[in-house]
Write a structure and sequence with these properties.
The protein has no helices and 24 strands. Helices cover about 0% and strands about 45% of the residues. Strands 1, 3, 6, 9, 12, 15, 18, 19, 22 and 23 form a ten-stranded parallel beta sheet that branches. A seven-stranded parallel beta sheet has the order 2-5-8-11-14-17-21, with no helix packed on it. The chain has a seven-stranded parallel beta sheet with strand order 4-7-10-13-16-20-24, with no helix packed on it. It has about 200 residues and is an all-beta fold. It is globular, with a radius of gyration of 18 Å. The chain has strands at about 25, 30, 35-40, 45, 55, 60-65, 70, 75-80, 85-90, 90-95, 100-105, 105-110, 115, 120-125, 130-135, 135-140, 145-150, 150-155, 155-160, 160-165, 170, 175-180, 180-185, 185-190.
Length: about 200
Amino acid sequence: NATTIIFNVSAWTNYSIGESNNDILVSACRDLDSAGTTYRLINNITALVDPCIRIANHNITLNGAGYTITGTGTGVGDLAGGYSNITIKNLKISNFATTGISSTWRDSLIFNNTFTNTSRGINFNSPANGINVTNNVFTGGGSSGEIYADRLISSFFVNNEINGSNGNAIFLDGTSVYNNTFINTTIKNTNSSSYD
């Protein structure tokens, strides 16, 4: 992420700075279905379909690169079902009625994302385990829980902030939610006394 690069080149060859040239560039809603691939947003996206991004294979990274996926007040931002080794990072998700990210993953990472005005920022409503949710910010949503889980096992939530939730900040429900760890989770300005 350097802003100034200086080369002293005495012969011509190929040089590359920044993101991998192998990333698949994403400029609109679509399926991400090529295993072992990093997909990178190159602009903000207005979600006109539900879900906007559907992860449809194992070993996929979605790098939001600081861009926003904005919903129309309905639907799901990102959906992934039954896959492992998924990474969603550096993404802003806003204005989804159902959820920002809906997940049934295994051994995956949700890192450095911002969720604004979503009913559920992250929704674990089918079996998910081994999820690492780190350095995310949730603001102004959460009528059903900014982090909602009714089937989640052996996952870690580290350095996340929930601010201004309109309902439960964290909602853990059911006998299929166990062995999960929350470290350095900041919860403030919520409208519910439950689970804060």
